[in-house]
Amino acid sequence: MAVELSLIVAMSKNGCIGSNGDLPWPRIKEDMRFFRETTTGSSVIMGRKTYESIGSKALSFRKNVVISSTHLANINTAIDFRSAVDQCFYKAFAIGGARVYSDALASDKLRTMYITRIHKHFDGDTFFPDYDKSKWRIESHRQSYSEDCKCKLTFEKHVKI
Questions:
Q1: pTM of the entire predicted model
Q2: 20 to 30 A Cα–Cα from 29, which one of 12, 40, 49, 148?
Q3: Cα(149)–Cα(81) distance, rounded to whole angstroms?
Q4: CA 115, CA 117: separation in Å to the nearest integer?
Q5: What is the pLDDT of residue 2?
Q6: Which of 6, 33, 30, 1 is nearest to 96 (CA)?
Q7: Which residue from 32, 37, 18 is spatially nearest to 146, judged by alpha carbons?
Q8: 37-48 in b/e burial notation, b at 16+ Cβ within 10 A?
Q9: Beta bridge mates, 36
Q10: pLDDT tens track for 102-148
C-alpha cells in the first residue's frame, strides 16, 4: 500500500524554522497541540538533529523514523529519505529539519503540507526551503492569536495541484 506523504512545519514571517538546534520562538501551545493532533497515529520522519532537539526520544503514539548516516539505538533509522518513507505506515509526515523538508518537497509522493505561519520575524540559522508555490493551493486555513509569542498564527493546509 502506498504511503500518503505530508509535511508539517511551523515557520516565522521570514521563513525561519530553527536556531541553534531548537525552535527560534518560545513554545507555542496552539501549534504544539495542532502538531500532536495532526500527527498522532501516523509515522513521522525527521533528521538526526531534529531528533536530538526533541531530547533523542521517540514521539509517543507515532512510528518514528530518523534519517541518519549511523544507526541510532532504540529508534528506527534510515540512511536516506526514500528508505525512511519505505519504513512508514499508511500516513507519514516529514517533520524536519530543512534537509528532510527539501527531500519531501522533491518527492513525487508529497501531497499535503500543513504550515503554521507565525506572523512575527525571528532570527535563526535554519530556514524552510523555497518551493514552487504555483503547484500548491490552500485548501483550508484558520487564524489564531498566541499569547506565547504575542503574535498572530495562521494554520494552513496546502494540497498539491
A1: 0.96
A2: 49
A3: 32
A4: 6
A5: 86
A6: 6
A7: 32
A8: ebbeebbbbbbb
A9: none
A10: 999 999 999 999 999 999 999 999 999 999 999 999 999 999 999 99
